[in-house]
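Hello, quick one for you while I still have it in my head. No rush at all, and the record is pasted right below.
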Amino acid sequence: MFPLSLIAKAPTMKHILAGLALVAGALSGVVSAETPVLEKGDRLAIIGDSITEQKLYSKFIETYLLACYPELEIQTFQFGWGGERAPGFAARMENDLVPWNPDVVTTCYGMNDGSYREYTEQIGKTYEEGMRRIIERMQKAGATIVVGSPGVVDSFTWQRGNPEFDQVYNDNLEHLGQIANELAKESQSPHADVFGEMMKSMKAAKAELGEEYPVAGGDGVHPGANGHLLMAYAFLKALGLDGEIGTVTLDMTADKAEATTGHKVLSSKNGTVEVESTRYPFCFYGSPNDPNGTSSILPYTQFDERMNRFILKVKGLESSRADVTFGASTKTFSKEQLESGINLATEFLDNPFVGPFQNVMNEVARKQAYETQMIKGIVTNFRQIPAELTDDPEVQDALKTIRRKMTEADDDAYQKAKAAVVPVQYTITVKPKS
């Protein structure tokens, strides 16, 4: 369908594994990575347009990696730029991104590349050329690139002006997403189906909450936290994370408990387990109908099932039901449910991790705000310095010093966010019901 040529590159072992995973996924109909893309200590760059510069899905991704997978020690940097298209980033990546030496890069372009009109072959060609330049350059630098599709536009906003615009433009965005997918296959890279995840969840949410519930934001383009959670979900899946946050198993007969890595049982007596965790489940916020929170979209996505499994299993329960208390909340479950395992992250949105998780996310938000200032306000302007000055050794040294000092400040912000992931102690109580 698209005029795609093979990309010449020297594959690293990570590229080879990703390619094998892609082949396996294609044969099984799965588009997300089958094996982890991230390795311990990797540097992850998140690039995209104004939707990336909103610093929501990027914040969710970074917080998830820090709090839910702290053992990976992933350092993240967001390079979002409002109004940008794929060719625009291709023109600035040598100056803005390459010196940061990323190991993994995620892309999210297409919203502006579609020019907010009906799809044409020229639109697709221009987008493809820009994306190809990004992919080729990043793979030349030895990075794994997760090729993301654009998101969606929302019908709610456009009903008042042009009732059919959302259908026309979503068709355009879907075409661009297909190009992104083909480029991912060609370059043996993971593909993040942002469009598919958002469209599927948007249809399901509107069917229950009403057409006026926005998933792509009040302006129809820039999502609230609900839509950004879907975007983060698409990228986290493509990064190959398994979503196994942890399992706590309580044996009522033996009156003992055990936990998987990242969780330590401190005591267990009479159905009450005290645990200390260094891995957090992802936590949500907002009311059930609030598009500016993350909770409202949960019933219409598999985020928890796929990426956020914090399981409690109970063995030896003699009664048919039991009350489970986790934090300040208590819920009743059947013996069968507890034997197979309940997801505490899903069943108890208000839990002991909410406060600590928010602290981590606040540190990430401060860090990413600095990164926008660093790149857009200072670093990208290095490109404007006349060639005769950039060839001057003193000027080169000065620019290197500025870049190094700003990078060090960002590194310090990363360390603060990382340090915010403190051990959390809590109790889980299982009380049989007669």
Observations:
- The longest helix spans residues 393-419.
- Residues 107 and 205 are 26 Å apart (CA to CA).
- The first strand starts at residue 43 and ends at 48.
